[in-house]
Write a structure and sequence with these properties.
Pnp Oxidase, Chain A, 38% strand, 8-stranded antiparallel beta sheet, 164 residues, single chain, alpha+beta
Amino acid sequence: MSDKTHSQADVAHKLWKAIEHHRTGMLGVSGDSHHFQPMTAFGEPETHRIWFFTSKDSDLAESAGGGAEAMFHFQSREVYACIDGRLSVDHDRARIDKYWNASVAAWYPGGKDDPNLTLLRLDSADAAVWLVDGGLVKYVLEVAKANASKTIPDVGERRDLNFQ
C-alpha cells in the first residue's frame, strides 16, 4: 500500500462522505446464521451511528432484538470499509421523518405509519477502511508495474478507526 498517510480525521471524513454519497452496503449480525443483506445506510458522522429502514419481522430486526454485534460492509470506488458495532431496533420518529424518501416509501405502502416499518441503529465501534488512490487507471497501471517488477502494487492505504 501507499507510503502516504491520511490523518484519522481525514479517513473518517472520507468514509462518512462515501456512505452519504453511495449509501448501499451489506449489513449482518455477527455469528448469526443469516446472510448479510443489502441495505441503504443513513450515516451520522457526529454520533458514529448508521440508520437503516427495515421491516419489523425481517431477519435483521429479529436478530438485533435488544442489541447484537453487527457489521456493515461498504464499498465505493475510493473507499472500502467494514464497520463493526452494536445493532439495535429503534423507533425514532425524528429519524424516520429525517431520512424518509421515495425509495424508502416504496417498501412501506402504509407510509411512515406502516405497522411493519422499523429502524435499525448501528452504533459504530470501529472500522477497517481501505482508501483507493487514483481510481481504475492508476490501479491498472500499478498492477502492470507490479507484475513487471515483481513488487506489490501501490493502490492506496488501509487504516483502522476507533469510534469510541
